[in-house]
Amino acid sequence: MSKKLPAVTLTILNKEYKIACPTEEQPSLLSTAKQLNDKMHHLHASGKVTGTDRIAVMAALNLAHEWDMAKPQSSQNDTVLLEKLSSLRQKIENALKN
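Request: output the structure for the sequence above.
Response:
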């Protein structure tokens, strides 16, 4: 028997949505919904995009683009971190040998 997930209520562009979500993921979902809501309100206020469906698509596209642009930077940070960890491991190994 499957366990029913608790629902969390989100408000996006003045509309409420009930989403089933594990309790431990709710803070992340709420944060993400706030980012989407903020982006949609910004687009709506600009007057350049009309219609809720178009605002939602443009907001999703903007957020996906921002996330995609952050990936290379994150990848570079990962590479630097791995190099530093490798160097640190080598120093520890040398210290243990002596």
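The mean pLDDT is 86.
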